[in-house]
Amino acid sequence: MKNKFDLINEMAVDTGSKIILLLLDGLGGVPLAPGGKTELEAAHTPNMDALTSRGSLGLSEVVAPAFSPGSGPGHLALFGYDPLEYEIGRGVLEALGIGFKLQPQDVAIRCNFCTLDAQGNISDRRAGRISTEECIKRVKMLRGIKIPGVEIFVEPVKEYRFAVVLRGEGLSADIPDTDPQLTGVPPLPIVSASPETEKTAEILRQWWFQANQMLADHPPANSCTLRGIAKDPGLPRFPEIYKLRSAAVAVYPMYKGVARLVGMDVIEHDAETPAEEFEVVREHWDEYDFFFVHIKKTDSYGEDGNFDAKVGVIEAVDQALPMLLNLNPDVLIITGDHSTPSLLKRHSWHRVPILIAAEWARYGPATKFGETSCAAGTLGLIHHVDIMPLALAHAKRLGKYGA
Amino acid sequence: MKNKFDLINEMAVDTGSKIILLLLDGLGGVPLAPGGKTELEAAHTPNMDALTSRGSLGLSEVVAPAFSPGSGPGHLALFGYDPLEYEIGRGVLEALGIGFKLQPQDVAIRCNFCTLDAQGNISDRRAGRISTEECIKRVKMLRGIKIPGVEIFVEPVKEYRFAVVLRGEGLSADIPDTDPQLTGVPPLPIVSASPETEKTAEILRQWWFQANQMLADHPPANSCTLRGIAKDPGLPRFPEIYKLRSAAVAVYPMYKGVARLVGMDVIEHDAETPAEEFEVVREHWDEYDFFFVHIKKTDSYGEDGNFDAKVGVIEAVDQALPMLLNLNPDVLIITGDHSTPSLLKRHSWHRVPILIAAEWARYGPATKFGETSCAAGTLGLIHHVDIMPLALAHAKRLGKYGA
Q1: CB-CB: which of A66, A88, A372 is closest to B398?
Q2: What CATH code is carried by the domain that includes residue A123?
Q3: Residue A400 in domain
Q4: Which of A47, A53, B159, B347 has the smallest set of CB atoms within 10 Å of its CB?
Q5: Whether residues B112 and B212 fall in one domain
Q6: Segment A241-259, tens digit of pLDDT
Q7: B1 in a domain, yes or no?
């Protein structure tokens, strides 16, 4: 059996048609109480609602039933990569999250400042949750560590968390975490899981030894643990699989980072609001066939449990939507990377509403874009990994399978 | 790629929340005539209907489209074990069905009394369908057979069917059926499919030889065939996978047996009616996180073709339902292990209605629990193997997948 990307790639045709994938992070929701509406249903969205008569609606499973996806798996699935098959290591995600431009051979590491007692045992795995300011102070110290043959980047993340990236020849990431996930024991030794990894392990041992010397007089963050040691997974390249000149427009570093990992161009800009992001799309309209447009704040307000503010972001997107419609994309898809119901204040497992507007869509009777209308939509139940193939099909970019 | 149980297990968290899985055997149905209602739709179920505003509805595929599941596969799927991957041998199912408490190393065998002619060929594979009384008489004779090094249990099942269980050291079940599925030929010889099985095969040969001598003068059941020779498949353990202290409340032995095979505690009781079973749940409420409650008679009446009686059982369950609701479970799921439409008088392939009531469910607009409302439900189409993960998710017992 051929793999899915090969099949799609063989059927894909560059017809020059244009696709916009508008992603409202954490779009899906649930009602606050029985008989109520979800955030999307409560929002006043005349433009999206009008699109329902020019498109088809469905609900989409992001990873698998009951799975609440993190941002990494959610976006991998959205781009067509089965997140149960393809994984982005946690170190890489951390580096992407702070906007670090990883190179293919870099080794990225999530680090925690921790507290060691006089015996060298961990007494606090998070170093008393020191402030980000204290974190930055120590990160600046750690940047002083130099080891021959390797370039070392140290970047603050938040509170007790920071990131280390190694750049050089012949590095490997096959090294287990040193965080024992327990207190009262020392950090685990840095060991190489294979002979090829010994060089990298030795670099990290030297780095950690020097780091401990520097941090010794700076309790409570007088040591650190290394976690999620990982490299760019070398994913199949999105623009080539789908035969689309592809660009990402996003405000937050994490989403630019994942787009870059799959090989999209990332357009740099100063946009912040949905309207400003849409303006970036307009400016670059002629340069690309495919635009991934990421709206973050639906998720942020969902996680805050702020139902009304999440509704507000959806309405702001709707209000600006004519800017995208005026570009006359052949296909416009509106969906999320997972649900973030304000009621739960976290990513959830609920299936995500999706709207595919295109001349060739199977139009349905819905008049409002929302979870309930999507559950009965003509698109039916789909899976996130199928969104890109469906985008191509609706853009007449996908030929017949078999004679 | 990790297997599903490992993934679920890694994400599972013991939050102390409580789940009831209320199983109406053969719940799904079809209307008796065009324009009609199914059994569930015809039933007066004010309590279940009220739950639709506190939950979400869907239809669930038990094994695969068009598959009419037996009780074994139906319950395996319900507990999260893909019945196409995990199998319970027929000998084991037969033993469970009569309430025999199988031990892990036991070898269980379904046997048929049959008729041999003077040449030793089978003239009737079911021995003229002798009565259960005649079956019991012969089973008592066969209990007289003793073979050194092995304990042998012989139990009547029904009419020409009985079960044999071997208990001892070093037994194996890798032995093909001896029923040739034809008349006019002798029973197949008892052969071992591997050297490790020779000991067991030799025990069965001796047993069968003596059985024939005892039965010779008792036609038409003057011999027997051995089928579905099997051991406990050693399934991954339900309470450990899902991190749930789990109990089964069932009236019929088969369902207690399957629950025991996956590692649930089986609560012994004298309950018969739904209300009495629910009372057992109440009595043991503090001891467990998860209760599997099995209602048999929906299926029995479906198989009898008795539409009204099946409706009556559903109504009795509904009437007693407040007993469960008063326990304030965090999640209450109502579904079936397959459909048993009265019109068909057998298990069928039709998808099964499911209701998941929980504070975090995506409520929909339905006002009645039934197949039609489930087909348009906000839960959508799911699969039985996903019911337990969804139960955990709705009980806030499942963390995020990936960062």
Answers
A1: A66
A2: 3.30.70
A3: no
A4: A53
A5: yes
A6: 999 999 999 999 889 999 9
A7: no
Residue at B149 is within a domain: yes
> Closest Cα of chain B to A35: distance in Å?
6
Task: Report the share of chain B in percent with pLDDT over 70.
Answer: 100
The residue of chain B nearest to residue A351, with distances taken between CA atoms, is B379
- Residue A158 contacts B, CB cutoff 8 Å: no
- Shortest Cα distance from A34 to chain B (angstroms)? 5
Residue B137: pLDDT over 80: yes
Q: What is the pLDDT of residues A46-86, one digit of tens each?
A: 999 999 999 999 999 999 999 999 999 999 999 999 999 99
Print the domain residue range for B214. 93-230
Contacts A–B by Cβ distance under 8 A: 87
Look at chain B and report how many structural domains it folds into: 2
Residues A148 and A257 in one domain: no
Judged against a pLDDT cut of 90, whether residue B267 lies above it is answered with yes
A73 and chain B in contact, CB less than 8 A = yes
Instruction: Provide the b/e sequence for A341-371 (b: ≥16 CB within 10 Å).
Output: bbbbebbbbbbbbbbbbbeebeebebebbbb
Which among A187, A66, A171 is positioned nearest to A116, based on CA atoms?
A187
The reply to whether B246 and B382 lie within a common domain is yes
DSSP SS3 for B108? strand
Do A254 and A377 have their domain in common? yes
| Residue B273 covered by a domain | yes
Where does B171-258 show beta strands of DSSP type E? 223-230, 246-249
Domain identity same for A187 and A317: no
DSSP state of B150: B
For residues A161 and A110, the answer to whether their CB atoms sit within 8 Å is yes
Reported ipTM:
0.89
A138 CB-near residues (< 8 Å, 6+ apart): A113, A162, A215, A218, A221
A64 touches chain B (CB under 8 A): yes
Task: Residue window 21-60, chain B: list those with CB within 8 Å of chain A.
Answer: 53-54
Residue that is last in its domain, among B163, B198, B230: B230
Cα B401 from Cα A29, distance rounded (Å): 18
Interface check for A110 against chain B (CB to CB < 8 A): the answer is: no
A83 shares its domain with A101: no
Question: Could you tell me if B170 and B292 lie in one domain?
Answer: no
Query: Are residue A299 and residue A357 in the same domain, yes or no?
Result: yes
Q: Tell me the chain B residues in contact with residue A347 when contact means C-beta distances shorter than 8 Å.
A: 400
- Cα A371 to chain centroid distance, Å, stands at 23
Q: Which 3 state secondary structure label does DSSP give B128?
A: helix
Q: What is the pLDDT of residue A334?
A: 98
**Distance between CA atoms of residues B15 and B125, nearest Å:** 55
Last residue of a domain, one of A169, A204, A231: A231
* Contact: A347, B400; criterion CB under 8 Å: yes
For chain A, what is the HEC assignment? CCCHHHHHHHHECCCCCCEEEEEECCEECCCCCCCCCCHHHHCCCHHHHHHHHHEEEEEEECCCCCCEECHHHHHHHHCCCCCCCCCCCHHHHHHHHCCCCCCCCCEEEEEEEEEECCCCCEEECCHHHCCHHHHHHHHHHHCCCCECCEEEEEEEEECCEEEEEEECCCCCCCCCCCCCCCCCCCCCCCCCCCHHHHHHHHHHHHHHHHHHHHHCCCCCCCEEEEEEEEECCCCCCHHHHHCCCEEEECCCHHHHHHHHHCCCEECCCCCCCHHHHHHHHHHCHHHCCEEEEEECHHHHHHHHCCHHHHHHHHHHHHHHHHHHHCCCCCEEEEECCCECCCCCCCCECCCEEEEEEECCCCCCCCCCCCHHHHHCCCCEEEEHHHHHHHHHHHCCCECCCCC
d(CA B199, CA B358): 53
Residue A242 tokens read as 């789908």
Q: What is the CATH number of the domain that holds B361?
A: 3.40.720.10
